[in-house]
Amino acid sequence: MLEFMPYAIQLMWNSKTDTIVYITHQTDHNFDINRVQNALQLFMGTRDFSTFSAKAITDRKIKYTRSLNAFTLEEVKPLMFFDPLSENFRYWHFTCKSRSFLYNQVRRMVGSLIALGLGKITEKDIMVMLQVPSHDNWDTRIQVIPSIGLHLVNVEYDTEELKRMTLDEQEWEPHSEEQKEKLELKE
């Protein structure tokens, strides 16, 4: 049986940090990994990421300022290394760590770095998008990469907050006979 159970859906909004990995591959051997590695630092720290997020479709006020704690890139082996076609590609993991992300933020950041690595844009183009944040400032030479490679790999919580938002086993067990009967019927 479960030892504890989160009782509030708010728990998912109260994470300390989220780690997202974007997995991609490149066939172009002109991909400049060193240039991309150097540009990762452009995104670090607290910034207004308006340019790197999708436009809001509601009237809800959105705060576009986020703090990026880590942004790394590493070359990895393919999942199906035994497939002879995998030799034609280079595989990459872009890893981002932050308290929260905006919609499309990671996909746009990685897309801009891929465009940089392929020589479609320059570091200056990325700096302009970061220093003059606006949805209208997105460089159309950059392709927003598909969501299929986006993976949430880790969520960290403050242990005290997690304890506060958690019920122990005695608290969530059914107390009335009616509750017990309903559970037995479901089983």
TrEMBL record:
Residue span(s) of domain Pseudouridine synthase I TruA alpha/beta: 39-158
This enzyme's EC code(s): 5.4.99.12
InterPro entries (alphabetical): PsdUridine_synth_cat_dom_sf, PsdUridine_synth_TruA, PsdUridine_synth_TruA_a/b_dom, PsdUridine_synth_TruA_C
The keyword tRNA processing is annotated on this UniProt entry: yes
Biological processes, Gene Ontology terms: tRNA pseudouridine synthesis
Pfam families documented for this protein: PseudoU_synth_1
Entry superkingdom: Eukaryota
Gene Ontology molecular function, alphabetical: RNA binding; tRNA pseudouridine(38-40) synthase activity
Gene3D superfamilies: Pseudouridine synthase I, catalytic domain, C-terminal subdomain
Keywords, alphabetical: Isomerase, tRNA processing
Reactions the enzyme catalyzes: uridine(38/39/40) in tRNA = pseudouridine(38/39/40) in tRNA
Family listed: Belongs to the tRNA pseudouridine synthase TruA family.
Protein name as annotated: tRNA pseudouridine synthase
Species this chain originates from: Ooceraea biroi (Clonal raider ant)
